[in-house]
């Protein structure tokens, strides 16, 4: 399977640079994953497509303000650090720009010395391990000094940090938002629950691998980065009971999808627990638990377009994207949404 099979031409002006004022006012392209039939709606109309007994699976990870700007203590040269994974003893795996000048032993300073860091090692792909030093609580310092790690295709400054956060974000740990969830308001979630739809929470801390391009021709040669997930006992039971009772499991976003598919046994039963996943879902994959998917529009040739193609078929997905471009939908993190479901 060639990466070019998942290419589409996207006009630059359709990349959304700012979130809408009303989260649930974004547009919603609904596609029947079997027939390819399309309907155009507004996101809050999602309730028309949900049934009592269904289960909505949401990822309650919280994005940390993981982008730090500082200087090298010896030369005062400017440096940018992106926190990727927390290790032990205040050591983080990071992406540093410019990286070449940050050899082990280099000391970095942020916020006039409020936070300092020493490069202790260089690891896979040139990432740096940095040991941070500070007084007080790391999270509070990060909240003061850090910026939201917006994707590279968003060039506008974000006025309100919370707009790159779902309303149900709870557990700190992501370097990127699970963006399909950005369309939900607390009012919409309450309306959905009042209909008799269960809402199950899972956690997957989204890494920067989510933006990494596929650099190989044959997608089978692509290696996914691993991300940490948690599925609690009570939430696994909600999902398993839904399947048992004939309801549909509807994932909000590819991260929720990857979490439950990673934690599922071959028997289609979701197991509670935590761990690291590098699951790569592409056409030919047999879904064990997921029935339908709410997601945003993704980058051409990305692993996320491949995942959606595994569910609805490559031709249907590319047709949906063509239609969305023709109708001037807004793309990517702050853009509109699509729902791959069964319309009949």
Average of pLDDT: 94
Rounded radius of gyration (Å): 21 Å
Termini distance?
Answer: 31 Å
H and E order: EEEEEEEEEEHEHEEHEHEEHHE
What share of the residues does DSSP label as strand, in percent? 25-35%
Structural class: alpha/beta
Q: Return the domain count.
A: 2
- In CATH, the architecture of the largest domain is 3-Layer(aba) Sandwich
CATH superfamily of the largest domain: QueA-like
Shape: globular
- Helical content class: 10-25%
* CATH classification, class level of the largest domain: Alpha Beta
**Spans of at least 5 consecutive residues with low confidence:** none
Kindly report the spatial arrangement of strands forming the biggest sheet. Answer: 2-1-17-16-14-3-12-13-15
Q: Can you describe this structure?
A:
This protein has 344 residues and is of the alpha/beta class. It has 2 domains: 3-63 and 160-341, 3-Layer(aba) Sandwich (QueA-like); 67-145, QueA-like (Thrombin, subunit H, Beta Barrel), CATH 2.40.10. The chain has helices at residues 138-145, 186-194, 233-244, 254-263, 303-312, 314-326; strands at residues 27-32, 38-42, 55-59, 61-63, 67-72, 78-86, 91-97, 107-110, 115-122, 128-134, 171-174, 198-204, 227-231, 249-252, 273-277, 292-296, 337-341. Strand 1 and strand 2 form a beta hairpin. Helix 5 (303-312) packs across helix 6 (314-326). The two termini are 31 Å apart.
